[in-house]
Design a protein that fits this description.
The chain is mostly helical. 74% of the residues lie in helices and 0% in strands.
Length: 298
């Protein structure tokens, strides 16, 4: 009897454990299925762009649409480079994006370090004023910025797109400041005891420990600079100096808007997206860490 009771309790325990495991599996499934559907919804435009860029003109608007191109039509990419100097535009966009990202990270990290760790008169007043500039729309500062750039003689020059980044931005300064506030003060005090100055402390302690913040700001600003259309449209006049985003708009005008040229436009758009995908996959680890740690302390 005692042995039978033990076996019954054991079977009941196994059933309960299986039920709990099944419920846990269902709860995970209920979470992951909507996330998977949202991910597919977000990535579908990219898949459609890739598919259209590899379709022949006669298959781009057929109904029902075909997601997998048959046959694969690479002539769209050949026509793309025949219509426009894509190599030059890629070099221009890379040059502007890299230099402006470097300037943004340099200036914003220094300003964020100052607001996070240094003591100076007016610090508690300047930082709220800096954050207040986030509410200013870009249209308000567009004309004053253009007048300054024209006064400096930088019209039709890539420096017009690069130089403003060396003065930082309120959003980037805020991100750096929030991240640097999470670095222990003991590290800075120990460096001061060893005789390190502020720039040495910033270079040896805050820059290495602040790599997640640097990666986050770099990805954000590189994305904005690479996809910027309004800036190049205002400041650049020469075709050879155009960036990729501006060149794609002119490509649409040169190729026309007929169905036969849709694959060429999608091919150009895909080439413009690939560098951003590569950058994100390279800095994904630091990017996620930066977003997770920023704003936890302030």
């Amino acid at each position: 009897m005692i042995q039978a009771a033990k076996e019954v309790r054991s079977l009941q325990g196994m059933r309960k454990w299986r039920n709990l495991r099944f419920q846990k599996y269902l709860s995970r499934l209920a979470i992951h299925i909507p996330l998977l559907l949202c991910a597919l919804l977000m990535i579908f435009p990219f898949i459609w762009m890739l598919s259209t860029s590899l379709k022949s003109p006669g298959l781009q608007f057929i109904f029902p649409p075909r997601l997998i191109p048959e046959p694969i039509y690479i002539q769209n990419y050949i026509d793309l480079f025949a219509l426009a100097n894509m190599g030059r535009y890629l070099v221009n966009s890379t040059k502007v994006a890299l230099l402006s990202t470097f300037g943004m990270c340099l200036s914003s990290s220094l300003a964020g370090f100052a607001f996070a760790r240094l003591r100076f008169p007016g610090k508690d007043i300047l930082f709220p004023i800096l954050l207040g500039t986030l509410m200013l729309p870009g249209a308000v500062t567009m004309i004053p910025t253009f007048l300054i750039i024209r006064m400096l003689g930088l019209i039709d020059n890539h420096a017009a797109l690069i130089l403003p980044s060396f003065f930082g931005s309120a959003f980037s300064v805020f991100l750096f400041r929030q991240f640097y506030m999470g670095i222990p003060q003991d590290l800075m005090d120990a460096a001061k005891i060893d005789g390190a100055g502020f720039f040495s402390i910033f270079r040896r302690i805050f820059v290495p420990l602040g790599m997640p913040a640097l990666a986050t700001v770099s990805i954000f600003h590189f994305l904005n600079s690479w996809n910027d259309l309004l800036g190049p449209l205002i400041y650049l006049n020469t075709t050879e100096k155009m960036t990729l985003s501006l060149a794609l708009t002119f490509l649409r005008g040169r190729s026309g808007s007929t169905a036969g040229h849709l694959g060429v436009e999608m091919a150009g758009a895909l080439i413009g997206v690939i560098p951003m995908l590569i950058l994100y996959f390279i800095g994904q680890k630091y990017f996620v860490q930066g977003l997770a740690r920023m704003g936890l302390k302030g």
